[in-house]
Amino acid sequence: GVQAAMQKAVEMAPDAFIPGGIPDPLIAEGHALIGAPVSRVDGAVKVRGAAPFAAEFALDGMAYAALVYSTIARGRIATLDTAAAEAAPGVALVMTYRNAPRIKPVPMIFTQPKAAHGDDLPVFQDDAIHWNGQPVALVLAETQEQAEYAKSLVRVTYHEEPATTSVAAAKARGIEAAAFMGEPLDVRIGDAEAALAASPHRVDAAYGTPRLNHNAIELHAVTVAWDGEELRLHDASQAVAHTAWSLAQAFGIEEKQVRVTSPFVGGGFGGKLLWQHQVLAAAASKLAGRPVRLMLSREGVYRVAGGRTLTEQRVAIGAADDGRFTALVHTGMVAMSPHNGLAEPFIMPAKSLYSAGSFKLSVEAVRMNMLANTFMRAPGEAVGSFALECAVDELAERMGIDPIELRRRNEPDQDPTTGAPFSSRHLVEAYRMGAERFGWAQRQARPRMRREGEWWIGMGCATATYPYYRMGGGAARITLKREARVRVEVAAHEMGMGTATVQAQLVAARLGVPLENVTVTYGDSAMPGTILAGGSQQTAAIGASVIAALRALFTDLLRLGGHGTPLDGLHFDEVRGLEGGLCKAGDGLRRASYAELLARAGRDELQVEGQAAPPLEARHWSMHSTGAIFCEARVNAVTGEPRVTRLLGSFDCGRILNAKTAASQFRGGMIMGLGMALMEKTLSDPRNGRVMNPSLWDYHVPSHLDVPPIEVLWTDLPDPHAPAGARGIGEIGITGTAAAVVNALYNACGTRVRDLPATLDKLL
Ligand code: MOS
């Protein structure tokens, strides 16, 4: 099946079988390791508690930091009394803007290739307050408890200035156009409003999603030490290279003078980038002349590390009698802080999911005095797919068409807003597989048709989608030893996704060596490459880097050791790794072992480095992972309580490289979508902008008992234009899920919730 699909893809686009310009024969030829459900190579060390996280590196003479947070949203510090804290037991120093070392502004994300900071505000350089919760003092003590106690003794007063802390006030101050990664968030094709008005069938509704916070199980933490002008960080990071570069800018030193390692990360999701705490820990360490550990409390994460911003969205769809969309309107606004580079781009799904006669898609922004928001799993798609996919469901019901059938009638055969061909898209097949497995045929078209005792029962579905990204700057180093042992070094990240495992599978398959011969090392800014664990792009970015490094390795092996072997005169792309050596492609008898090639080269080992080809594939092709989410939900007819009883995700994400880790990625994303649908909401006091629920007591995420059985399946059809045929899988699970849940709740009880989370008060 896989080989036939790949063959067909190549026939359809013979000149374009190129991930960034390099042919990838591995997937077409197939291999037992590709797709195998290999357990995490780091699994045992994690469950034994032997995996060190950022706050578990004990350094000699280390002091512990605690932060004092501002209690106003905007203004100036009037008085700052640190005497009592400084006199408290065990306190080494109290750092404020008055004694902090000079720190240059940390570049804001997207402004430069390695920028990763949420804002570009000064850190402890003046008395200005920009959000409620901004750090105003750092207490350093011999123990964490002493630091926490002393922090309670710091007294701060403020000159308050007028602040914008409610959405209504922000709107009154003005709405501006928004952009994402430098691209305006504005697409207009035809006259969508006129087409909408002229359509015989239409929906036109407003949807809202609240501000959401990151709640990775591992708190943001950093352990830092200076050695002269060299800065060393153990960080919880999904961007080690970015963090090293950014801190070098902040402290005015060379990039190579900063080394950031992050071998294990307890969850990332976009939040484990660069925030004030790393900068403050490094500054305090410099000031105190000793190593420092700064672990944010759970409250601290809410005050210091940004999450997802709120959205107000309008989706309007006009349709002809046959269900074909004549107009697709998706507009609305997001809230941003005055220093902020990330407008939540909620129109992304509408750009590529449906063909329509006309489009009007735009995101605008208002500014509020609050912590800068940032990436949070599928920024844009998570909340945009909620609004869009609920609207499609509403239209389907209005027209009396099955919602899957309505989507099928609007399935585009090329990107509907750019005209680019899809690299590979099998969403209709994903729906077919998912519907069959889920038992969609049992669904009642109308709500309140199924009841068991007090519970109304319903089914809903929605489309999931996330773009394929591969950012530039990928590179990898590979060392091959005589006994066919291989070491891969790449400045990438393992946050629980299975990165090292999947890459080891790929490298073992490409080299033709056993899986246990391959060690993938990562999480170190001193290693090659600038690879963000974000945008669901790590697998492709590392994959392309490894392809480039192996190309260099094969070239060197042939050049240095190929003479006198059956491989003499062959070019790197004429050979393949097989059974501990290289062979001529398609001729396993014409071969030489790695041991022989290295011996002839007079080497014990060969080390090479490769730079990934520029990511041109996404310029030529419209590349998106897609999927179909199905939900069965219950609503209590007496209390309104919602319960999700079944979830199923059927995904089309190209070749699945490890069935076990992929299933976990999909499930994890869907659980986060479940939280978004039913529970999560950051509450900010509109009077003063203070986050009111900065804890897992008050900010609810799904617990084990809230999570139903989740089935996942996939088409497994390789994308001919992605390295290893694989598009991203890390973020797509959260997309579509909230809509599927809300559509199922509607199908159960007949109440349509358009404002997340769908809590019981909204369902009765
Ligand atoms: Mo993901 S929001 O790019 O970590």
Automatic annotation (TrEMBL):
Domain of life of the native organism: Bacteria
InterPro entries, per database record: Ald_Oxase/Xan_DH_a/b, Ald_Oxase/Xan_DH_a/b_sf, Ald_Oxase/xanthine_DH-like, AldOxase/xan_DH_MoCoBD1, AldOxase/xan_DH_MoCoBD2, AldOxase/xan_DH_Mopterin-bd_sf
Alphabetical UniProt keywords: Molybdenum, Oxidoreductase
UniProt GO MF annotations: iron ion binding; oxidoreductase activity
SMART domains according to UniProt: Ald_Xan_dh_C
Xref: SUPFAM superfamilies: CO dehydrogenase molybdoprotein N-domain-like, Molybdenum cofactor-binding domain
Pfam families attached to this UniProt entry: Ald_Xan_dh_C, MoCoBD_1, MoCoBD_2
Matching Gene3D superfamilies: Aldehyde oxidase/xanthine dehydrogenase, a/b hammerhead, Aldehyde oxidase/xanthine dehydrogenase, molybdopterin binding domain
Coiled-coil spans in chain: none
Location of the Aldehyde oxidase/xanthine dehydrogenase a/b hammerhead domain: 48-162
Listed name of the protein: Dehydrogenase
